[in-house]
Amino acid sequence: MSLAASIILSALDALESDAELAARVRRVLGTATPVDRPEPVSDGGLVNKTVAARRLGKSISTLDRLVAEGAPYRMVGARRMFDVTELVAWCSARGRKPTTPAKKNEDTIDVDGVLHGAGLRVAGTAR
Q1: Which tens digits make up the pLDDT trace of 55-67?
Q2: Which domains can be identified in the chain, with CATH numbers?
Q3: The pTM is what?
């Protein structure tokens, strides 16, 4: 999501939660109707991934990772569409866990130190 889109969505959220602020903005803009945020919805209550991510409070890339883990979606033509109710239920059942695996701590072994400690040396090296 672009910075401009993010700022506009934040402003719209503020307008939805503060009636006095919304009235002042409508006066300044010269409009009598509330500012609505249309959300593209397809047949059957399915939404695209941008809307689904926004309703979950996640980024689009996080939603993509959740899909890779098995989050429910439906293909409508070539588009991946989400039933937000199903998605919320799946996320609740999944619980809170990272969407990317933790890095494994790879132990390193100092071979020279082990050999020296055992009184050994690599063939062909000086003492």
Answers
A1: 888 889 989 999 9
A2: 1-38 (no CATH), 39-99 (1.10.10.10)
A3: 0.46
